[in-house]
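Table S2 (text version). Query chain:
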Amino acid sequence: MAADKDKKKRPESAHDPGSASDDAGEKDQSPETAPTVRDKRRIDPETGEARPTPDAGAADDAEANLEELTDEDLARLLDGASPEPGTDVESEHLNDLKRVQAEYANYRKRVDRDRYVARELAVAEVITSILPVLDDLDLAHAHGDLAGTPLELVAQKIRTIFGRYGLAQVGEAGDVFDPKLHEAIAQLPSKDVSVDTIAEVVQPGYALGERLLRPAKVAVSVPEG
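Corresponding structure-token output:
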């Protein structure tokens, strides 16, 4: 009876030391305390072991080699020469540098050419719009209305300024007729010429460099047939 009472007094939840160690082992294996692998790429899926990490020292050495390249090294690479001893640059990198240099040189040529053409077109448009003013000044000068007046000095300044941009007058009496530069508005048979020759300039033409802004309107002396 006493033994039965002792058994009743012992709590049902109590365990012996062996069972306690088993519980601790189970707790250690529980999902809450198990290690979590966040980067699966570091684990070999076949063996389950961690792969060896890359040698940090080798990466540092490679980065240091790249940083040691100076402007002189890059210039030598672009010229096809080898860099200074101690730098390791593969031929593929050299070819890439040469290709980039060639592309950049072509890009600069295109930009310079487009900039020049845009500037020339802008100047040509402005000067073309002012050509009627030059025609009026020429008529006034031909009639002697500019001599001794302030407008004579203004006309000289305008022509000097436009001359700096390459503006040139086209068509003078005695020049051989050129249909690319001159526009014939009259033909005068003459025994004194053997080829078509400008006899009189009715309206002067103008060219800006190699660009013709306006052909000259002229009377042409033609050989008598």
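Notes on Table S2: Residues 91-142 form the longest helix (52 residues). The radius of gyration is 48 Å.
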